[in-house]
Specification:
Blueprint: H1 16-23, H2 29-40, H3 47-64
Helix pairs in contact: 1-2, 2-3
């Protein structure tokens, strides 16, 4: 396993980072991280933990608005 690009980073066609960089070319950190956790959530062992992390980042977005 490649420690830089483990299997849970890969989707069917794209890696999460490719999608994030395409949609968020700036530094919209909180939205990008929420999407990262959602995209990888079913490829890792702890689905609930990743969804909770995504929710945490989304709440930060709302707090910043």
């Amino acid at each position: 396993m490649n420690p830089i690009k483990p299997d849970h980073y890969k989707g069917n066609r794209f890696e999460a980072i490719d999608i994030i960089e395409d949609y968020f070319p700036g530094n919209d950190f909180h939205l990008a991280n929420a999407i990262k956790y959602i995209l990888r959530s079913k490829k890792k062992d702890n689905f609930e933990e990743d969804i909770r992390k995504a929710i945490w980042y989304l709440r930060r977005v709302l707090e910043d608005e």
